[in-house]
Design brief:
Layout (H helix, E strand, L loop, with lengths): L1 H24 L6 H8 L7 H8 L22
Bound molecules: zinc ion (2 copies).
The site of one zinc ion (ZN) has 7 residues, from α3.
Length: 76
Amino acid sequence: MKKSIQSLLALAVLAFAGAAFAADKAESKPGKCCVAAAKDGKACAHACCVAANKEGNNCTKCGGAGKLETKAAAKK
Ligand SMILES: [Zn+2]
Ligand SMILES: [Zn+2]
């Protein structure tokens, strides 16, 4: 019983550390769909991407990672 809880905890800690590490590295990489849309001068229309972009993040669901790269962070 105790063992299973410990391994579960270890897994959780590992996942958390991994996520924190990934976030720390913060490589900005938009999803493929967003890259394709950006090439056309558009914003990606995927609901998940729009939601992520609103938070200033790239959509992780579509293979993106890190913060949104804003060349002109003018409007706030
Ligand atoms: Zn997208
Ligand atoms: Zn998306």
